[in-house]
Design goal:
Layout: H1 3-15, H2 17-23, E1 28-31, E2 35-36, E3 43-46, E4 51-58, E5 64-66, H3 67-71, E6 83-85, E7 91-99, E8 102-105
Antiparallel strand pairs: 1-8, 2-7, 3-6, 3-8, 4-5, 4-7
């Protein structure tokens, strides 16, 4: 591989928003069975079997989004290891974990 090709690949990885989401470049926060708000998560990792009774945020235009509906996870038990990633430009802002624990990634 030529040096120029390597540099292009490295730039692409560094600038790819989805890679940044998975890499948690903005940090993370432990979420126990409680309500949370005022966050700016791009993904939610379920640590153990959990239920979430509320999960909302915004889309790229700032419009409120019900992520439970969008992900199709309302009223079900989420399994340990599940990962939910919002589309580029969107955020998870608030929610309530009824049972279990999760990690929110920024």
């Amino acid at each position: 591989m030529e040096q120029g090709q390597l540099q292009q690949i490295l730039r692409a990885i560094a600038n790819e928003p989805s890679m940044n989401k998975v890499a948690a470049s903005g940090g993370s926060k432990y979420l126990g069975a409680a309500a949370f708000s005022g966050e700016s998560f791009t993904s939610l990792y379920i640590r153990e079997d959990s239920t979430i009774s509320a999960l909302s945020g915004t889309d790229g235009a700032g419009t409120t989004v019900n992520w439970l509906t969008q992900f199709g996870i309302s009223g079900i038990t989420l399994k340990a290891g599940d990962l939910y990633i919002v589309p580029d430009g969107c955020k998870i802002v608030s929610g309530t974990i009824a049972t279990g624990t999760a990690i929110g990634y920024r």
